[in-house]
Amino acid sequence: MLSRLVITFLPRSKRLLISWLQPPLAVILGPKKIKSDTVSTVSCSVSHEVMGPGAIILFFSGKLLGSWGWVLSNISSITDLGGFDPVWLFLVVGGVMFILGFAGCIGALRENTFLLKFFSVFLGIIFFLELTAGVLAFVFKDWIKDQLYFFINNNIRAYRDDIDLQNLIDFTQEYWQCCGAFGADDWNLNIYFNCTDSNASRERCGVPFSCCTKDPAEDVINTQCGYDARQKPEVDQQIVIYTKGCVPQFEKWLQDNLTIVAGIFIGIALLQQTSTLFGLYFVKALISDATIPKDFREPFFLFKMEKLLGSLFAFWLSSQ
């Protein structure tokens, strides 16, 4: 009050100088008025619990979108499953994960309640859908097995059509130590390996080299090891090639690694549920923050300091 009174009686040039210096003083010293505002009291660890899974989802969404780009550029190497193009699966899943991860990260960083609600609710819906899919997969496991058999046989028919598809099938058969969907006879579906009299190929009644049993002493792959393999008796076939199908081998692998697979799925489910609960808690805490006032002690001190310096500066100018 005193500083304003002194400034009033100063010459016009000095009043202009003080008015010109007031904005920088306000910026340096602090606000002029104490405003009723709010401050976030939510722990940073809560926002990190939401942002962390969001960042993980963003990472894997990028991987899926990258896989979609690869599949799109190598579309001929992927066969259709009952008229469904798998490239759209990569696109949809990757896009949904990107949107979800973006909402979680930005919502946690900016404390945006709408994005946090969207992240939590959508993640809860996805968890419910995954749980439903798991139950349906257990109930309709025979139907899923038939669809997998149908998918593998379609790829067997197109084995020589694309080098990428051929490498994928060879890798699968070598890794699972299997041949065909349910046995080596499934290769009778391929025009190069069938046993019909009209087939003049040297690979007639044979199997790809990836079906052959490996000799640890041999370093060089014999690409002709599967020739005429299916013309031999079944006892002799077991010495030369794998006679078990890839579908039974996959089921056996799941049974042998059931603990690891179950642990991975349980871990993903716990991560989803934890993120959902933390997101909802974060939203509730942000909404309740509206009733918590700030601590005005520091702004009040700066406000008084500005007034004191302003008064001293005005007295100094008046004495000149």
UniProtKB/TrEMBL annotation:
Key words of the record: Cell membrane, Disulfide bond, Glycoprotein, Membrane, Transmembrane, Transmembrane helix
SUPFAM superfamilies: Tetraspanin
InterPro entries reported in the protein's UniProt record: Tetraspanin/Peripherin, Tetraspanin_CS, Tetraspanin_EC2_sf
A single GO cellular-component term on record: plasma membrane
Cellular compartment(s): Cell membrane
Top-level taxonomic group: Eukaryota
Membrane-related topology note: Multi-pass membrane protein
Main location: membrane
UniProt xrefs under Pfam families: Tetraspanin (PF00335)
Transmembrane segments: 50-75, 87-109, 115-140, 258-281
Family: Belongs to the tetraspanin (TM4SF) family.
Name recorded for this polypeptide: Uncharacterized protein
Classification of source organism: Eukaryota, Metazoa, Chordata, Craniata, Vertebrata
